[in-house]
Write a structure and sequence with these properties.
By secondary structure, the protein is mainly α. Helix content is about 70%, strand content about 0%. It starts with a helix and ends with a helix.
Length: about 325
């Protein structure tokens, strides 16, 4: 009797395995991880996974999930802007893209609304030329007392003018290197990583700061990832190798947030040499005492690692 039960249980397990086979390659595992996160996590973690899916050619998955999010949270300040940002990228129909983009424009133009910072950042991410489209609103935003908003406005105002882009890039680099506010330095470094077009002279400055930073410095990883991502074609290969080594040789000692930053940087500039490290991150290796794999932070880091795996494989 027991033998029959055991055989029955094993048969059931085999059937389930056939119905839900474990992904066999890192790429398939990475895609499965992103789909798991977008299906089961909430709000901003879900949104990050959605954009990673869009940027790796799986926009339909994100579109389906975020049309549902819009019905659930389309009136929720701040998060609704993130939903619209994702829908603009995921939609195939130009008219529907325009509909979501117009909602973001309305949020941006509402100087007393609750979505100002999120709308400014989101429109910058979408490279919308807000300084040309809404010059009066943009001018007021650029002198805002809210320094986070004002820094995002510097980024957003760059699009639509090569001259503004060059001037603003120099201003953002100056903030990274000299500002006394760590949050402003971190935002400015993030923007530089998004723009990725430093001159060799500018890159030398950010790299010198990164290599001179102590591991206990608050912006240690942010400076290194910015140096890695913004490296121009003629960057000093020895310095670039130093940056890479400092980021990747002791990943186990970094926080979960820092590991996420590293994975995001490797998505942009990593090679197949970095795949074992990213696979380990996706599998929560060395998480004990650092973060709970069940946490949102853990899921966010795994999503970034999965994204990097897919991006690197698409380049090689």
């Amino acid at each position: 009797m027991m033998l029959h039960l055991l055989i029955g249980m094993l048969s059931a397990i085999n059937i389930l395995s056939m119905q839900n086979p474990t992904p066999t390659t890192p790429q398939k595992q990475a895609l499965a991880e992103l789909k798991l996160i977008i299906a089961n996590r909430q709000k901003f973690i879900k949104a990050h996974a959605a954009e990673y899916l869009i940027w790796t050619g799986h926009a339909d998955v994100a579109l389906k999930e975020f049309l549902k999010e819009e019905k659930l949270h389309g009136t929720e300040p701040k998060y609704r802007v993130v939903i619209w940002r994702i829908l603009v990228q995921a939609e195939h129909d130009p008219e529907r893209k325009k509909m979501w983009l117009n909602k973001m424009y309305d949020a941006y133009k509402d100087l007393n609304g609750p979505d100002r910072t999120h709308a400014t950042e989101a429109l910058a991410k979408l490279q919308q030329p807000v300084a040309n489209l809404f010059p009066e609103v943009t001018s007021k935003t650029l002198v805002s007392d809210d320094r986070n908003l004002q820094t995002y406005a510097v980024w957003a105002s760059s699009y639509g003018s090569e001259i503004r882009m060059k001037v603003n890039r120099e201003e953002l680099l100056h903030r990274v290197l000299t500002d006394t506010n760590a949050i402003i330095r971190r935002i400015s470094a993030y923007v530089l990583r998004k723009e990725q077009e430093l001159s060799t002279q500018q890159w030398d400055k950010i790299t010198a700061a990164a290599l001179a930073a102590h591991k206990t410095d608050e912006l240690y990883v942010a400076l290194l990832t910015t140096a890695l991502v913004t490296a121009p074609a003629k960057a000093d290969s020895k310095k670039l190798a130093q940056v890479d080594e400092l980021l990747t040789k002791d990943v186990h000692s970094f926080t979960v947030g820092e590991r996420t930053e590293i994975a995001q940087a490797l998505a942009e500039k990593g090679t197949k040499i970095h795949l074992p490290l990213l696979i380990d991150l996706m599998k929560d290796k060395d998480s004990a005492g650092i973060y709970d794999p069940a946490s949102d932070e853990g899921a966010d880091m795994r999503a970034a690692a999965a994204y990097a795996i897919l991006k690197i494989n698409s380049r090689h």
